[in-house]
Design a protein that fits this description.
Layout (H helix, E strand, L loop, with lengths): L1 H10 L3 H12 L12 E5 L4 E6 L2 E6 L5 H10 L7
Antiparallel strand pairs: 1-2, 2-3
């Protein structure tokens, strides 16, 4: 996907699109350390859970039938969450 976006940006001479494509191509996953997580924002409509650390933001994608289980697991394992 990232390579396609970078290629499209090159064809349309869009530096922003080229950069975004290169970033996507190089980062396919990211690790969040639960002990550093400060906030969790569930977005049920998109089956996404945003997990935010002080210097890092991450997103967890899951199926709608697993959403509650994944959200509860994250909430139970993050001791520094802002209530």
């Amino acid at each position: 996907m990232g390579e396609t976006l970078a290629g499209a940006g090159a064809l349309t001479i869009s530096p922003g699109q080229i950069g975004q494509g290169m970033l996507i191509a190089n980062h396919t996953s990211q690790y969040s350390n639960f002990k550093n997580v400060r906030s969790v924002k569930p977005l049920r409509k998109w089956n996404t859970i945003k997990v935010n650390e002080p210097l890092s933001k991450n997103q967890v994608y899951c199926d709608s039938e697993d959403f509650d289980f994944v959200l509860n697991y994250i909430l139970e394992h993050c001791p520094k969450l802002k209530k």
